[in-house]
Amino acid sequence: MTTQHITLTVNGEARDADVEPRLLLVHLLRDVFGLTGTHIGCDTSNCGACTIHVNGQSAKSCTMLAVQADGAEVRTIEGMVAGTELHPLQQAFWDQHGLQCGFCTPGMIMQAAWLLDQNPQPSEAEIRAGISGNLCRCTGYVNIVKAIQQAAGELQASASAPAAAGEAVAAEA
Amino acid sequence: MPAPVEPPIETPASLPEAYAVLADSSAEDPVTPIAGGTDVMVRITGEIGEPPRRMVDLSRLRELRGIAVDRGAVVLGALTTYTEIRRSSVCREHLPALVEAAATIGAGQIQNRGTIGGNAANASPAGDTLPVLLALDAAFEVGSNRGQRAITADAFWVAYRRTALAPDELILRIRIPIGSGRETRFRKIGTRRAQAISKVVLALSWVDQDGPPGSGRVAPIAPTGNGPIGTWRDVRLALGSVADRPIRTRATEAVLEAASPTPEIADAAAEALAGEIHPIDDVRSTAEYRRVVAARALHRMIRDAGGW
Ligand SMILES: Cc1cc2nc3c(=O)[nH]c(=O)nc-3n(C[C@H](O)[C@H](O)[C@H](O)COP(=O)(O)OP(=O)(O)OC[C@H]3O[C@@H](n4cnc5c(N)ncnc54)[C@H](O)[C@@H]3O)c2cc1C
Ligand code: FES
Ligand code: FES
Predict the structure, then answer these.
(1) What is the CATH number of domain B62-177?
(2) pTM score, two decimals?
(3) A25 CB under 6 A from ligand 2?
């Protein structure tokens, strides 16, 4: 079986791997790199559980081949925490009860992070549209929306306070 | 479970290299291009249709990127994503209906990767940008080792999920003329607002003979309800999900040509459209629903344009 050698950055760390051409990016992350925070919830690219960032853009990692990430900068849910401090989105999902079983949560947070990156002060409608590619079977979305609103407020506040936790904002564009 | 597939994949860094990979692509043994992968990757398991046998990843081809205005047309590279279309000031100014269509496709993640070239080449009868490309009289610039040629949108979708592309050809660019005073409206009807495949999708476009020049630039959300009702010329109406491919409906266009958007004309056009299309029952909808809804959606577009 032929393999291809790829190099990429995952959560700021240089990684490389020899992969089969058909290996999905989500399988590379989970099975080769052990980053099991990125979930797989469907085989039709519908659920959004596998959402990550590729070169600063949210993407469904089940819809990409690992070889297509050659040279890319990838960010997963594991890369959201700064040291031991939760990302404002992670904290907000906790505070607002934005999850029940938690299966959708990593994808939801990655999509929300991209959304806030594009639009730091989204309306409720914009939040709902922004996460419409992510399905949650538990919460009914109300608390997810509240969590994203809380995080948006905190990220705004920290962005206007210089030298504060600006680091946490997804800065890659 | 079908046997796992192992499609070899090439990632050329330039267009000539891509052409070389595609040179021995044939109908029996195709090389499948992959752009954003949002259609191809859903097929790769082999559980839905024929999985690709050999693949060529287009994502490094800079020649296929970019949005420009050139000689009275907006030119979109085949790899232009929906997110790029939504953000582009050129598209927002000249192609508001295409921006609107782009915003209805999938959701954020799909818009970040899905491309307009992929939507066209995939040739789904439900592809949401395809009626817009038909209504705007777009042309595809396509190429291979054998040279380049242009194919009009009208001649591009030749049968169910089939295009006029030869097996070795790539879409390079899509050229969309920007006529002064041309107005375009878009409407998609699906089960939900996000990630829904269209039950019916339509695009209507016309030049208002008596309207102020350039008034077609920005589609008003609400009816304006003022000003004289003008006369429409060069009317084009295109629909998706009502036939085996995206289609122009010329009998209905004829009703609207040289007419004004009055209640009587709206009634006549809606009736003509209901008679002209022959949709089918499928998992997403019924023939009857599609016929009724297409006619009502057109009626409403004409009413909004007429401001009554
Ligand atoms: C969750 C989800 C939701 C979706 N929602 C919608 C929707 O609402 N509306 C809609 O219309 N579509 C929708 N789609 C389908 C898909 O996203 C679009 O059709 C998209 O535009 C495909 O583009 P791509 O770049 O991903 O194509 P790919 O999957 O890379 O390619 C699609 C086809 O085009 C060929 N191809 C691609 N580029 C070229 C080129 N330059 N030259 C020649 N051939 C080429 C490929 O070989 C393949 O056959 C959805 C898909 C998913 C997974
Ligand atoms: S696993 Fe469901 S969208 Fe990727
Ligand atoms: S919390 Fe269970 S799927 Fe969202």
Answers:
(1) 3.30.465.10
(2) 0.92
(3) no
